[in-house]
Automatic annotation (TrEMBL):
InterPro entries: NAD(P)-bd_dom_sf, SDR_DHRS6-like, SDR_fam. It comes from Microbacterium soli. Belongs to the short-chain dehydrogenases/reductases (SDR) family. This is SDR family oxidoreductase. Keywords: Oxidoreductase. It comes from the Bacteria.
Amino acid sequence: MPNALITGGTSGIGAATAQLLHSRGYRVAVTGRNPETLARAREELPDGVIVVPADSASLSDTTQLMSVIEDRLGTLDLLFLNAGVFTPAPIADVTEESFDAQVGINFKGQYFTLQKALPLLNDGASVVLTVGIGSSRGAPGASVAAGTRGALLTMLPSLALELAPRRIRVNAVSPGAIDTPLFDKLGVPDEGREMMRSRIPFERFGTGEDIAGIVAFLGSDEARYITGQEIVGAGGYGLSA
C-alpha cells in the first residue's frame, strides 16, 4: 500500500487530492495550520486519513511532522508540496511581514519540507510541487506570490537531477483559476469571476479534482519516466495571443 503526504491538504486542491489518493488505495497524511480547516478535514476526509497540524514555514514543525509520518506511515511514495499563501498587494503596499510570510511558506517551507522528507522517501518515489500559472502570467498585486512560486520552478531541474540517482521524480503542477475556498477568502466579486471565466477557453473554472488527477498521475507508475517537468492545468488559459 503506497503512502502519501500532502502539505496544505485540509482544503481545496490538497483535500481533493487526499480524497482521490485514498480512493486509489493510498495511506494519506495531510497538514494544515488553520484550526477550523483542520477540524473540518478531520470530519470530512475519509477515515484513516491522518490530519497533522503543522506550519510549513516552521522548520521545527516540519521536523516534528516527519517524526509523525515515520511513526504512522514509515516511508513515503508521494510527497505533494501544496502548502501556500497568497496575499495580494501592489508593490507600494507590500510590507516586510507579508513578504517574509509568503517566502516562508511558498518557497522556504517547500524546500525544507522536501529536505527533511528525503530520509523517508522510497527510491522511485514522486515529489510534486504546486507552482501555479501566476509564476509566468502576471497579475497586478501578485508580484510576491509569483516570485515565490516561480522560485520553485527555477529549482525544479536541479532537484530532478540531484534525486535522479534514487529514481525519485520531481515535477510541478501549475493550476490556473481553480474554484476553491481561496476565491471566497480573497473576496473576488461576481463580476471579477465572470471576467476570469471569460478568458478560459474551456469556459469554466477548474476544480480541486481536476488538479488532483494530475497529481495522482505524476505519483503513479504511468509517470515513471517523467521528471523535471511542469504540467499546467488551466483549461487553456493563456494560450490566446
